[in-house]
Design a protein that fits this description.
Blueprint: E1 2-7, E2 13-20, E3 27-31, E4 36-38, E5 44-46, E6 51-58, E7 61-69, E8 74-79, E9 94-96, H1 101-108, H2 112-118, E10 122-124, E11 138-143, E12 148-154, E13 157-162, E14 167-168, H3 174-180, H4 220-232, H5 240-252, E15 270-278, E16 283-288, E17 291-298, H6 301-304, E18 310-312
Parallel strand pairs: 9-10
Antiparallel strand pairs: 1-2, 1-14, 2-15, 3-6, 3-18, 4-5, 6-7, 7-8, 8-11, 11-12, 12-13, 15-16, 16-17
């Protein structure tokens, strides 16, 4: 259960919440230019562009949950259980396993349009990373300043959809999520007008009543509606700090409190981290469930040209600023 989003005025900010009942050893990882990746299809590639994001690192291989490259192209994989289908490799096609999509596309492409043009040849394959790491059932949101779209591979095959909202969650498939928004077209951030009857005077008794009906549960369907409503009605200044702060406020509106959502295995689902990247300058901001302070990691020229991965462990101990000690 996760929520992904892109928003911003002067710059494009891209990020997500990572909601899971377990941790995967995630760290901020910077993949440099010219890094070699050996793919399951037998090919080897070297990255043209550096990228930064959150990843579980196995050896020197970053298994990215989301990342943005130095050209401003961003991509995130979100859980898509029961709908994602992996196929056997098809000769003559671009065969990539789910964990290879981010290194391949962000390492090679300088625009989201370039990625979109190559999707007709893409087959997302059923080859696991290792015996100990089964395949993740994912779909993806991809964007830059000019475009945003969703990629889903189901039993019917691979499809991509324009995403005018700039929000994605998990199930159901994206076309349903967009159709479902029509159930909430009467919501408003403004005070409601009495449409109940012209035969009775009805007045509001508190602020925010124009949005009565906005779903508050943690299901993917409801989080999609709530994130879209808050994002599309968001107002803030155009400076970096204001934009980053606002981005995290929107993600906070769909974050999971430990204990409020329990999985079928009896484990609490929780928002382990939230992140936001400035796609223009490669700065990656994050906060974790146990540390509300926003931490930033910048993708510098030194790291873009490093000989291998640069990895930063998460700062997870709560940071409290005392003003009278």
């Amino acid at each position: 259960m996760c929520t992904c989003m892109v928003m911003g005025k002067k710059n494009a900010y891209f990020g997500r919440s990572m909601d899971f009942e377990y941790r995967f050893g995630e760290r901020v990882a910077i993949t440099p230019r010219n890094m070699l990746f050996s793919l399951k299809n037998g090919l080897q590639i070297r990255t043209r562009y550096a990228m930064i994001g959150m990843a579980a690192v196995r050896g020197e291989y970053p298994l990215y949950a989301e990342a943005v490259n130095e050209k401003g192209v961003a991509m995130a994989g979100l859980n898509f259980p029961g709908n994602a289908v992996h196929f056997a490799p098809v000769q003559g096609k671009l065969n990539l396993a789910p964990y290879e999509l981010i290194p391949w596309f962000l390492g090679q492409c300088e625009t989201a349009a370039q990625i979109r043009e190559s999707l007709s040849d893409l087959v997302i394959t059923n080859i696991p990373f290792s015996d100990r790491l089964p395949l993740s059932e994912l779909h993806w949101m991809i964007c830059d300043r000019e475009a945003c779209f969703v990629v889903e591979q189901t039993k019917e095959g691979l499809c991509w959809y324009e995403n005018p909202i700039g929000v994605m969650t998990n199930n159901p498939p994206f076309p349903y999520q967009m159709m479902n928004l029509r159930n909430y077209l009467n919501l408003s951030p403004n005070e409601p007008v009495n449409r109940f009857s012209d035969r009775i005077v009805l007045q509001t008794y508190g602020r925010g009543m124009g949005a009565i009906g906005l779903p508050g549960d943690t299901s993917p369907e409801s989080r999609f509606v709530r994130a879209a409503f808050n994002k599309l009605n968001s107002e803030c200044a155009e400076d970096e700090i204001s934009q980053i702060t606002q981005f995290f406020h929107v993600l906070d509106s769909v974050s999971l409190v430990r204990g409020a959502t329990i999985t079928e295995d009896g484990k609490p689902d929780v928002t382990n981290y939230c992140c936001c990247s400035n796609t223009e300058n490669g700065t990656y901001y994050y906060k974790t469930y146990t540390n509300n302070q926003i931490t930033a990691v910048k993708m510098t020229e030194r790291e873009k040209n490093a000989a291998g991965l640069t990895v930063y462990p998460l700062i997870e101990e709560q940071q409290i600023r005392y003003v009278n000690l």
